[in-house]
Amino acid sequence: MKEQSKSNRWLTAVLLTPTGLWFAFMLVLPLIVILVFSFGERAPVGGYAGGFTLEHYANLGARLKAFTNTLTYAPVGTLLSLLVAYPLAYYLAIKVNRRYKLILLVLVIVPFWTSLLIRTYAWIYILGGKGLPSILDWIGFEGVRLINTPGAVLMGIVYGYLPLMVFPIYVSLEKLNKSYLEASSDLGASPYKTFMQVTLPLSMPGVATGCMLVFILLMGEFLIPAFLGGGKVFFIGNALVDLFLQSRNWPFGSAISITLVVIMLITVSLYMRMTMRNSKTGVDESLM
Q: Would you put residue 42 in left (φ > 0), alpha (ψ -120 to 50) or beta?
């Protein structure tokens, strides 16, 4: 028995070694390079020069606005995406006739068939970009221009990331045992109580997954703020583009990148712990 167990461990190790090496090469090694860069100095012509200094970490306050915007709009954009996605996912999973479900799911994912760049340009036209007629004019809001505002950025975020929020929630709701809903109704619970005490707690894994997908990607977003914010809504992603491609201050950009990774790890860990705890508590209460 022990020999078989040892053999299984060796087989598992052999099978996981290629994946582990690939993971280390594609994820860990680049992070190590960025970490080393963050303690270096900027070369006279830009880029990276050797050395060791904490100057770039001490100067993080110079990009405080970018951090503040990102840490404000990323959670707000995630929440707005959730508020739009959950009713849609609920309708697709619970209410829609099975024969139409596939068609509607395809319609949700259709925007992903087009480049985000093209879709963002379309929003510039919709919101009334400079020199362009606004669709808002056609529906009676003449002279209204939402482009280059925080509202425009949030609209672009919700539109761009909605499918990533819808599908995890849809999968959780699709797997939901419908007998729980019937039992809750038979015991006299109102539809609102059934949703709050049964449906919502049991769908929390999908909610958590969708929120993490959207939040993590938003923390590095730069295209939507650049196009729809007009430079007035500056994310960390925009700061990194500027530091690496324009001013070529790689060490400072690397310090910001490492700080962003640390913030994301802390935020995601706290969120996942809180979500899983609330989900378990909600399910236990609903089954009592």
A: beta
The tens digit of pLDDT for each residue in 107-134 reads 888 888 888 888 888 888 777 755 555 6
pLDDT tens per residue, range 174-228: 888 878 877 887 778 888 888 888 888 888 889 988 998 999 999 989 999 998 8
Q: Which of 279, 234, 267, 236 is nearest to 75 (CA)?
A: 267
Q: Which 8-state DSSP code applies to residue 188?
A: T
Give domain status of residue 225, yes or no: yes
- Split into its structural domains, the chain has a count of 1
Domain assignment present for residue 173? The answer is yes
Cα separation of the two ends of the chain = 42
Residue 220, both tokens: 């590095």
Q: Which residues of 174-187 are buried (b: 16+ CB within 10 A; e: fewer)?
A: eebeeebbeebeee
Residue matched to tokens 């009592």: 288
Residue 268: per-residue pLDDT: 81
Distance of CA 187 to the CA centre of its chain: 38
* pLDDT tens digits, 260-287: 999 988 888 887 777 766 655 554 554 4
Of residues 249, 166, 252, 263, the one with CA closest to residue 220 = 263
DSSP 1: -
Domain presence at residue 125:
no
Cross-strand bridge partners of residue 42: 48
178 inside domain: yes
> Which residues fall within 8 angstroms of residue 67, CB to CB, at 6 or more apart?
60, 236, 259
CATH code, domain carrying 89: 1.10.3720.10
How deeply is 222 buried, as exposed, middle or buried, from its count of CB atoms within 10 A (0-12, 13-18, 19+)? Answer: middle
Q: Rounded to an integer, what distance in angstroms lies between the CA atom of residue 41 and that of residue 211?
A: 37
Range(s) of the domain holding residue 207: 59-110+146-287
